[in-house]
Specification:
By secondary structure, this protein is mainly alpha-helical. It is built from four helices and two strands. The protein is 55% helix and 10% strand. The longest helix is centred in the middle third of the chain and has 28 residues. The relative contact order is 0.14.
Length: 130
């Protein structure tokens, strides 16, 4: 079985996009240095500024990661056979509502510590934009 998880946290993505923008800026100035060696110092200062900003964003991202825990809220499971799929569905369905509410024995099956997984048939693989 192959599983892919969807995360509930898009805060990290914001920092990653900012880092990607800074890397583009750095690459642009590095290209300009090779094209115009006479202005190397000017472009190097811009590269240094972008690297300083990147370090600040990295610190912010680390602080954010310490404060917020990333949790899986959706999982896409791809089974090798229909038999494997059926076994998985039986393992989820075996636990009745009362057993889930009254016992902590099945807590490991919860997603984000409070949601019982809902199983739906996924779209055809040709429809998914990977």
């Amino acid at each position: 079985m192959s599983m892919h998880y969807g995360l509930s946290d898009y805060g990290r993505m914001r920092y990653m996009l900012q880092m990607a923008d800074l890397l583009k800026i750095k690459k642009k100035f590095e290209t300009q240095i090779t094209e115009e060696p006479a202005n190397k110092e000017k472009y190097q200062k811009e590269i240094d500024k972008s690297q300083a900003k990147a370090k600040d964003i990295l610190k912010q991202m680390e602080t954010y990661a310490q404060k917020t825990k990333s949790c899986g809220v959706i999982a896409y499971a791809q089974f090798q056979s229909m038999n494997g799929r059926d076994k998985f569905l039986q393992a989820i369905k075996k636990t009745g509502w009362c057993a889930r509410m009254c016992s902590k024995k099945h807590d490991y099956k919860y997603m984000k510590t409070k949601w019982w997984p809902e199983v739906h048939r996924g779209p055809e693989p040709t429809v998914i934009i990977w």
